[in-house]
């Protein structure tokens, strides 16, 4: 076999391959064997029909077609390996010559990963939010905990903001009561905004037995989006009572003995959350700067496929779980279809550039992924997918997605290398030291995932559903 590589552009090549006919012998033998099992000829046992009879009865062309289809992938792979090409996607194959007994010649055009020169990233400098926890934030966190321990007591007075009312609802559209527009005994906290627009104003001031009618646009059900005449009847009013903020509350709501200990713990938790957010912010901004430094050609077909994949995942996974279609989603977002498609394309370009650059860094820095790192990443992926680790691992293995997970972890480690070399300062001008963060590589993996939007979890979910 002879092969030659022609570079069409930085991301696409054409392979020209010539195969002497004697190298097709194994594929020809396999073709005759396959046809033997599929046909019957009077006077011959199944599977024992001579090659010359198959040629006479079914045509040599059918045999050649079967043999060539069998041989093409093997010779294409040999040519790719010989040319040391890093191909992307499936090739477009064109048979240019087929002379029985002499020669098979074909071309294969395919996208290839472009050669990327990793820029000097040691000069990257980014600014992140300062790590500050205010007294107001601590008070808010404690107040939220206090809200969780609120109790309700029936009262004989008009309903007011913050009260919990029990209500019966009936919705009409065009004067007709909707089949799914009746609900009794609904518990609702006034001011929570969890039900229909206009309901807070309607029930405020009503005592038990009081009734009001208002107009509101329905948020779901058979008449979603339509204006309905809603009748609401209050059957009970209860006041929410918050516990006193004292040591007794701390003992009831936590493992601490005093309120001051509870507040100190709340502050520590907020600091931990802000440290995580700060590290993530640093990684995202360092990655943005790295992408600006590197020139990365984008294969057109790969980009088109990535855009289609992102749209498919949005429509059939994310929006489907929320009960939305693309049209409704765009309406909520206030975007046109053109704006959505432009944004999706920009995100896809960023994802491809991120993957190419970080993969090149993995090779340059000779980064490896050990079993412990892969297992930890798999556990996080399983948690985010809603599957058990065993289910997720089985689906990933059966779907052939293990190399994808390894790539995700490796790219996270590559990003962590760049972040470590960068200068990170906070808004107060203080140097931020991220090296002591044990979870830095894991956080960098999540940041890289967010940019590239790999599909291991989606494919695992599809496999599990099947």
TrEMBL record:
Catalytic activity, reaction form: [protein]-peptidylproline (omega=180) = [protein]-peptidylproline (omega=0)
Family assignment from sequence similarity: Belongs to the FKBP-type PPIase family. Tig subfamily.
Purpose: Involved in protein export. Acts as a chaperone by maintaining the newly synthesized protein in an open conformation. Functions as a peptidyl-prolyl cis-trans isomerase.
Signal peptide (UniProt feature, chain positions): none
SUPFAM superfamilies (alphabetical): FKBP-like (SSF54534), Triger factor/SurA peptide-binding domain-like (SSF109998), Trigger factor ribosome-binding domain (SSF102735)
Family annotation (InterPro entries): PPIase_dom_sf, PPIase_FKBP_dom, Trig_fac, Trigger_fac_C, Trigger_fac_C_sf, Trigger_fac_ribosome-bd_bac, Trigger_fac_ribosome-bd_sf, Trigger_fact/SurA_dom_sf
Residue span of region Disordered: 430-466
Protein's organism: Streptomyces sindenensis
Subcellular location: Cytoplasm
Main location: cytoplasm
UniProt biased composition (Acidic residues): 432-443
This protein's name: Trigger factor
Keyword Glycoprotein in annotation: no
Enzyme Commission number: 5.2.1.8
Stretches assigned to the PPIase FKBP-type domain: 162-215
Domain notes: Consists of 3 domains; the N-terminus binds the ribosome, the middle domain has PPIase activity, while the C-terminus has intrinsic chaperone activity on its own.
Entry's Gene Ontology molecular function annotations: peptidyl-prolyl cis-trans isomerase activity
Keyword Protein biosynthesis: no
Biased composition range(s): Basic and acidic residues: 452-466
Coiled coil: none
Assigned keywords, A-Z: Cell cycle, Cell division, Chaperone, Cytoplasm, Isomerase, Rotamase
């Amino acid at each position: 076999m002879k092969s030659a590589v022609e570079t069409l552009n930085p991301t696409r090549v054409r392979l020209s391959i010539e195969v002497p006919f004697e190298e097709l012998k194994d594929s020809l033998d396999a073709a005759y064997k396959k046809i033997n099992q599929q046909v019957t000829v009077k006077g011959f046992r199944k599977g024992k029909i001579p090659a010359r009879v198959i040629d006479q009865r079914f045509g040599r062309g059918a045999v050649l077609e079967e043999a060539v289809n069998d041989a093409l992938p093997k010779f294409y792979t040999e040519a790719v390996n010989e040319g040391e090409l890093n191909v992307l996607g499936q090739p477009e194959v064109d048979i240019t010559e087929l002379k029985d007994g002499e020669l098979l010649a074909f071309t294969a055009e395919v996208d290839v990963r472009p050669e990327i020169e990793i820029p000097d990233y040691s000069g990257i400098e980014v600014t992140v939010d300062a790590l500050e926890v205010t007294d107001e934030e601590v008070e808010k966190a404690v107040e939220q905990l206090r809200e969780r321990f609120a109790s309700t007591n029936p009262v004989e007075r008009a309903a007011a903001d913050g009260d919990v009312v029990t209500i019966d609802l009936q919705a009409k559209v065009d004067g007709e009561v909707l089949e799914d527009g009746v609900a009794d005994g609904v518990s609702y906290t006034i001011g929570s905004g969890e039900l229909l627009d206009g309901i807070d104003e309607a029930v405020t001031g009503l005592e038990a037995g009081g009734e009001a009618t208002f107009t509101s646009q329905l948020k779901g059900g058979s008449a979603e989006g339509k204006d309905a005449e809603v009748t609401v009847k209050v059957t009970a009013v209860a006041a929410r009572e918050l516990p006193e903020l004292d040591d007794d509350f701390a003992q009831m709501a936590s493992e601490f003995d005093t309120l001051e200990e509870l507040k100190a713990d709340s502050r520590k938790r907020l600091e931990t959350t802000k440290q995580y957010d700060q590290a993530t912010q640093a990684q995202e901004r360092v990655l943005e700067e790295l992408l600006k430094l590197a020139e990365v050609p984008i294969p057109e077909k790969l980009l088109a496929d990535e855009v289609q994949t992102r749209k498919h995942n949005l429509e059939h996974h994310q929006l489907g779980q929320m009960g939305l279609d693309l049209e409704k989603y765009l309406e909520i977002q206030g975007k046109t279809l053109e704006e959505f498609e432009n944004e999706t394309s920009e995100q896809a370009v960023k994802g491809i550039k991120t993957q190419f650059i970080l993969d090149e860094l993995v090779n340059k820095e000779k980064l490896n992924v050990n079993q412990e790192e892969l297992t930890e990443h798999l556990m996080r992926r399983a948690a985010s997918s809603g599957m058990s680790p065993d289910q997720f691992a089985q689906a990933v293995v059966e779907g052939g997605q293990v190399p994808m997970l390894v790539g995700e972890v490796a790219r996270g480690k590559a990003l962590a290398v760049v972040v470590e070399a960068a200068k990170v300062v906070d808004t107060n001008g203080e140097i931020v030291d991220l090296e002591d963060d044990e979870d830095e590589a894991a956080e960098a993996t999540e940041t890289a995932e967010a940019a590239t939007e790999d599909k291991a979890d989606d494919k695992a979910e599809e496999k599990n559903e099947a």
